[in-house]
UniProtKB/TrEMBL annotation:
Keywords, sorted A to Z: Acetylation, Lyase, Mitochondrion, Transit peptide
Entry GO terms, CC: mitochondrion
InterPro entries reported in the protein's UniProt record: ClpP/crotonase-like_dom_sf (IPR029045), Enoyl-CoA_hyd/isom_CS (IPR018376), Enoyl-CoA_hydra/iso (IPR001753), Enoyl-CoA_hydra_C (IPR014748)
CDD domains named in the record: crotonase-like (cd06558)
Protein name as catalogued: Enoyl-CoA hydratase domain-containing protein 2, mitochondrial
GO molecular function, one term: enoyl-CoA hydratase activity
Species of the source: Dipodomys ordii
Length: 296
């Protein structure tokens, strides 16, 4: 609990928007492998991270990881971001996992450093203060599935293919999969999937509880993205501070015993009491109208 509490206390730090939002459109981002787009209009508050490395099927290479780290660092302090949505710009692929061609050129020491950095990236995604959603419209294998597991919510096309297949390559999951999959599915089922390297389609993953929603793929190949965006739209009207603190209470509480978890929940609740949004929610209930939350 001693380690969990400081992270809870940091949830509301630096509550200022970025001076320049650095959210480029896909066109303006040029050849970047990670592109960031803040949506407007009724979708204002949804920010998308577009993974766009088509020649390597969004494999997790050095540049990809560097750019994703940079994007997360910018966005985590931006209070305009109410939901962060991960999607692919490569049709038929979410993320194909580690870039094994790059990996072959590394020494054993370099591999260890690289995997540690990759694990750190997944931890950054998991610790992102706002809700995160993975829209899985295609293959999500190995590190690609570990990236999705680091998100809060997952939506998959029924035709998507996912699995922690590292044992079929003489490896084991090294970016958090051995820890996050058991928390998602239970220990015995997680072991079965990791030991066998089994691949699942979106519908099978939904039946097991690995993804929140599975949808039939459309001709454009982006059905999961549209369902994920609709899910994000359900989150948008809710009080953003309460949502962030609810995420912190769940995530930090899962790391400790239930008594300590209850204490963490109490601390999160206490931080929410003085917010304008809490008073607005109570006033809206009393006046029988929809609340207008401002994130303060």
């Amino acid at each position: 609990m001693q380690r969990a509490l400081p992270r809870v206390l940091r949830i509301l730090r630096a509550r200022r928007p970025l001076g320049a939002r650095h959210c480029a459109s896909d066109a303006a981002a040029g050849g970047r492998e990670i592109q960031v787009r803040a949506l407007a209009g009724p979708d204002r508050g949804i920010t998308e991270i577009l993974m766009n490395r088509p020649h390597a099927r969004n494999a997790l290479g050095h540049v990809f990881i560097k750019e994703l780290f940079e994007a997360l660092a910018r966005l985590r302090e931006d209070q305009h971001v109410r939901v962060l949505l991960f999607r692919s710009g490569v049709k038929g692929v979410f993320c194909a996992g580690a870039d094994l061609k790059e990996r072959e050129q590394m020494s054993p020491v370099e591999v260890g450093v690289f995997v540690q950095r990759l694990r750190g990236l997944m931890n950054e995604i998991a610790a992102f203060p706002a809700p995160t959603i993975a829209a899985m419209d295609g293959f999500a294998l190995g590190g690609g599935l570990e990236l999705a597991l680091a998100c809060d919510l997952r939506v998959a096309a029924s035709s998507a293919v996912m699995g922690l297949i590292e044992t079929t390559r003489g490896l084991l999951p090294g970016a958090g999969g051995t820890q996050r999959l058991p928390r998602c599915l239970g220990v015995a089922l997680a072991k079965e999937l990791i030991f066998t390297g089994r691949r699942l389609n979106g519908e099978q993953a939904h039946q097991l509880g690995l993804v929140n929603h599975a949808v039939a793929q459309n001709e454009e190949g982006d059905a999961a993205y549209h369902r994920a965006r609709a899910l994000a739209q359900e989150i948008l009207p809710q009080a953003p501070i309460a949502v962030r603190l609810g995420k912190a209470a769940i995530d930090r509480g899962m790391e400790v015993d239930i008594a300590s978890g209850m204490a963490i929940e109490g601390m999160c609740y206490a931080q929410n009491i003085p917010t304008q949004d809490r008073l607005e929610g109570m006033a809206a209930f009393r006046e029988k109208r929809a609340p207008k939350f401002v994130g303060k």
